[in-house]
Amino acid sequence: MSSIEACRTEALGGHVAACTKCNHQHIAYNSCKNRHCPKCQAPAARDWTAARTEDLLPVEYFHVVFTLPAEIARIALWNKRALYGLLFKASAETAATIAADPKRLGARIGMTSVLHTWGSALTHHPHIHMIVPGGGLSPGGTRWVACKPGFFLHVRVLARLFRRLFLEGLVALHRVGQLRFFGSLTALAEASAFAEWLAPFRKTDWVVYAKPPFGGPEAVLAYLSRYTHRVAISNHRLVSADAGTVAFKWKDYRIKRGDRMKVMHLTTFEFIRRFLMHVLPDRFHRIRHYGFLAGAGRKENVAQIRALLGHSKPEAPGQTLDKAPPPLTLREPCPDCGGQMRIIETFRRGQIPRTRAPPRKQAA
């Protein structure tokens, strides 16, 4: 919270920028660069997405979502590192195992998984968004095995294996004492009580669903730019705020038809509490790659697949962000004339710039 409060204020220092064509100058304060800050995610998402351009394949892409039952999500809130990690592992292993089955696809697939922990109303709702190219490498790596058009894998089959793998992992975590329980669930620390509590979840249907395929690789990039670095709530959803109440827009998914957008009013304390529920543990990666998209072998695998498909490496759309901008030159053009902006002075936190420039207007 301290990082977000100080973001783009004089508390973090900044620089004075001047246009090379006109007389425009403004002060720009430094960003906190905290990954949970709503203001800092757009540049990070833009750079990350540009770096992923070279991994795109000329195939259909699918979007699969793995969710946890609400009761298990409750204990995940107390054991974020362990259960979020298990959520990543179980969902990736599920997709890879079913895809490798000769009766299904019979191929080694690649996946990009993104963790979201919130619902639209800032409630705790951990789930994985998985982006998967429509096919995979044959067991010998000699050919590309494509999915059926418009179809990836049976979601019911995915859901059952995901349920089994996650529950097995949950029992293993409990056995080695890596789970903590509070409130009315304190008794679950005992093995027998935990086993009895888990029993109903082995029979219920877990939610795994597949969204319609993306409209091409360009649509995948557009999606990733919105989802990979998203935080629990963005500034544009805020309606109003004062010392006692915060109002924000949210989508009621229980409504099947008509306008699902509503405005929720929370006390300031409750709004902050809900926001902080979604802060991840230190050094916990919320974007992970699996299969032929994982690790140091990703570039080699992607190049091999392109060769099998007879397709060359795509050019990065629009302005490439791989190249660093010239020293002391800003990416953003002059807001008055569109000219190039240069840094004419930098100042540290707590300092006052010597150059007198009108304060730069900040976005709400």
TrEMBL record:
Q: Which GO terms describe its biological process?
A: DNA transposition
Identify the Pfam families for this entry: Y2_Tnp, Zn_Tnp_IS91
Q: Which residues form the Transposase zinc-binding domain?
A: 1-68
**Out of the domains of life, which is the source?**
Bacteria
The Swiss-Prot or TrEMBL record annotates one GO molecular function as: transposase activity
> InterPro entries, alphabetically?
transpos_IS91 (IPR054832), Transposase_32 (IPR007069), Zn_Tnp (IPR026889)
Name by which UniProt lists this protein: Putative transposase
Naturally occurring in which organism (per UniProt): Roseovarius aestuarii
Every copy of the Transposase IS801/IS1294 domain together lies at 110-296
